[in-house]
Design a protein that fits this description.
The complex is a heterodimer of chains A (88) and B (298). With 88 residues, chain A is α+β, with helices and mostly antiparallel strands. Chain A is 41% helix and 26% strand. A 4-stranded mixed β-sheet of chain A has the order 1-2-4-3. The chains are: A alpha+beta (88), B alpha/beta (298). The interface between A and B is medium-sized, with 17 and 14 residues.
């Protein structure tokens, strides 16, 4: 149950979601991790709350994306992972 | 004051950067595209991007439209993405949408009903979301007036020349004689229905002179504005569709003289040696309204 969304382009982010996990873990790869890593994680967590996802490993490969883009890519990746696992 | 729709700049909603930097170019309207510019397997991602952008991005003074996917396929069956687009975007705050390939009033009525349902579900005042009908086929153009009058939600009708010439069975030429009747029909229908008519795109970005001529002809035919596909086209259209200060000055004199003479119900006066009657006053009022909308006068 894996879903991916985004592109390796400036102002974008590639988010990979694995729903076969225990609890929530967020892995961030970004040149700006020291400065904005916690905000990136917060954006991801807000989407997990909104979509009521309890178990997920989220990998965020950032290329300078704003928060709303991280949120959108996370949402799409989660829905794609659910679709791949046959969950509506 | 009239809401200006001189320029409508296309931006594919699948490109994250365009969601926050298109307003920088100051078009009157932005048209985020979920339809032709977005690949089939990226429709979900583009829709999600747009939903999140609508929640947080300040688009300044730009009026934001979204070209949704059609509600029906060419065979009249329910299409896969149109309703999903509407259901996601309205709760996120979208109030303007363009319905592509609109061919008959029933297409607008169907969208109108769906919008009423979604507005009710989300406690949004009924009628908040407005529609621009995109006329891109001979059938759509022939039904332009009925489409424009099919719902109070319709605020503008736009003409799409690429699909129009494809379905007509001809090619698009720079002389645009093949479009003359259709563009006139769309502009007249919009005028009767008191909505804005928006002209088609000009695809050859490098041909600036061709674009300028087509924008001038759009203005002369009665269009309120023109769709743009590149930021470099915006200034050209704004210059053409914005009255000159000389025109504005003359129009202000006419409007003021008409007010003093109290001839709204008929009659003729003279302003600077020229005869002024009701149609001339109406034209002057339109110029003043455009000038106010463009920020030339207060």
């Amino acid at each position: 149950m894996i879903g991916i969304c985004g592109n390796e382009k400036a102002s974008d982010v590639v988010v990979t979601v694995n729903l076969e996990a225990q609890g929530r873990t967020v892995e961030i790869k970004s040149k700006l991790k020291d400065m904005f890593g916690s905000l990136m994680e917060k954006a991801v967590m807000e989407v997990l709350d909104e979509l009521k996802v309890v178990n997920a490993h989220i990998k965020v490969e950032d290329f300078g994306a704003l928060d709303f883009i991280i949120k959108a890519r996370t949402k799409t990746a989660i829905n794609r992972a659910k679709k791949a696992g046959g969950i509506n | 004051m009239k809401k200006l729709r001189r320029t409508m700049l296309f931006a594919p909603a699948s490109n994250p950067k365009l969601l926050f930097n298109t307003a920088i170019y100051k078009p009157d309207c932005i048209l985020f595209d979920l339809e032709d510019a977005v690949k089939y397997d990226e429709k979900d991602a583009a829709r999600d991007l747009l939903v999140e952008a609508l929640k947080v991005v300040n688009f300044s003074k730009c009026e934001v439209f979204v070209r949704i996917n059609p509600l029906r396929n060419p065979f009249g069956e329910k299409a896969p993405f149109g309703e999903l687009d509407v259901r996601a975007l309205v709760p996120a705050g979208l109030t303007r949408m363009r319905l592509p390939m609109c061919e008959k009033p029933e297409h607008i009525v169907e969208l109108d009903r769906l919008l009423s349902q979604i507005e009710k579900e989300n406690n949004i005042e009924k009628g908040t979301v407005k529609i621009q009908a995109s006329l891109e086929t001979p059938t759509g153009v022939m039904n332009a007036l009925a489409i424009a009058q099919s719902s109070d939600r319709v605020v503008s009708i736009s003409f799409g020349a690429e699909d129009f010439t494809r379905t007509l069975g001809t090619d698009r030429t720079k002389a645009a004689t093949e479009l003359f009747f259709a563009r006139s029909q769309v502009a007249m229908a919009a005028s009767i229905a008191k909505v804005d008519a928006i002209d088609t795109v000009w695809s050859d970005v490098s041909d600036i002179e061709g674009f300028r001529k087509e924008a001038e002809s759009a203005k002369n035919l009665g269009f309120a504005g023109k769709s743009c596909i590149h930021p470099s086209q915006i200034k050209i259209v704004h210059n053409i569709f914005t009255p000159s200060m000389e025109e504005v000055k003359k129009s202000l004199e006419i409007v003021e003289a008409a007010k003093l003479a109290n001839i709204e119900s008929g009659g003729v006066i003279t302003v600077n040696g020229k005869m002024v009657d009701i149609p001339v006053i109406a034209k002057a009022e339109r110029v003043v309204s455009l000038a106010k909308g463009a920020g030339l006068i207060k």
